[in-house]
Specification:
Number of strands: 16
Pfam families: AKAP7_NLS, KH_1
Keywords: RNA-binding
GO molecular function, one term: RNA binding
CATH class of the largest domain: Alpha Beta
Protein name: Activating signal cointegrator 1 complex subunit 1
Strand order of the largest sheet: 5-6-8-7
Radius of gyration: 24 Å
Structural class: alpha+beta
Number of helices: 8
Organism: Erpetoichthys calabaricus
Distance between the termini: 47 Å
CATH superfamily of the largest domain: Cyclic phosphodiesterase
Amino acid sequence: MDVLRPTLININGRIYRKNAVKEQTYQNDEEEEFSYAENSLCTDEPCDSLQIEQTDKGYRCAIDVPSVLYKYIIGKKGETKKRLEAETRTSINIPKQGVEGEIVITGQQRSSVISACTRIELLVESFRKKQPFTHFLSFALNEPHIQKQFLKFKEEVLSKCSQDSGIDGSIFQNPAKLHLTIGTLALLNEKEVRKACDLLQVCKDEFIKDITGEKPLPITVEGIEYMNDDPAMVDVLYAQVQAQDGSDKHQIIADQLVERFVASGLMTKEWDRVKLHATVMNTIFRKDPSAEDKGPTGLLRQERESFDARNVLKMFEQYRFGDLDLNAVHLSQRYSTDSSGYYTSSGFITFS
């Protein structure tokens, strides 16, 4: 890493530079990995955005942290917490495991409290990125006529290509859950879910209304594609989606949503541009029919059993799934099902 151009980390609107350090790794009682990077960032620099209160006994700061992340601040047998307290000369009070609340830091010196708060926030940010995603923003494609055409596609592929390596019924998407993935999120408590729902509404008011003209977006789902180099060893096949008016309004909405959610800290930026993909066949379903692919890369190659898609691509390259109107963005819950068979929505906005 170039020391003159260090990695920048955005935490609650504050920007920190990350310095190159050697991390120490431990195993806690639950065999979960955590690391504590000593002096990993410029933690003692003043940070006016932290809410530091002066008290009769010194200074105090409270940080809102999801309870699932408490264990990374505590560490094995409390080692991480003790070390933070010793190095910053502060006292750190953490709620009981499973109880949502604030971590409270107190100390004699304001700079000590700032240092402890910043180190905890950086520790939380580091392990937040390692949490599996819980929600994703999506455009639903599960209209009845689209599902019907998808089932016809599945039937024909199995009829004509089942002799090809790796192709069987287990790798096809559930038709009730056909969708375009916009971006994934790890929302670790109800407060973060509410924050995501609120931001989705803000996005509607600030730019989605102008892009859509408060009308649905007519699109066509037609053709399939793959993303790796060898069609004989494919992990995923996607249906292609085009706007009927030739515009890219759905792409612009997706890109701007991801930009806003990344800026808020609720989403991690993975790509320069959203690759809108409607999964129709995926080898991840072979092991877990309820799995949700995170994106174009999905699982590592060695964790998948690929299939030979050459004949599928040759016979169904221009397969037409149908037309529909995109009229909503959903904050969908991973591993969930609502009464329609689609993912349960924690919140959604409509265009019209």
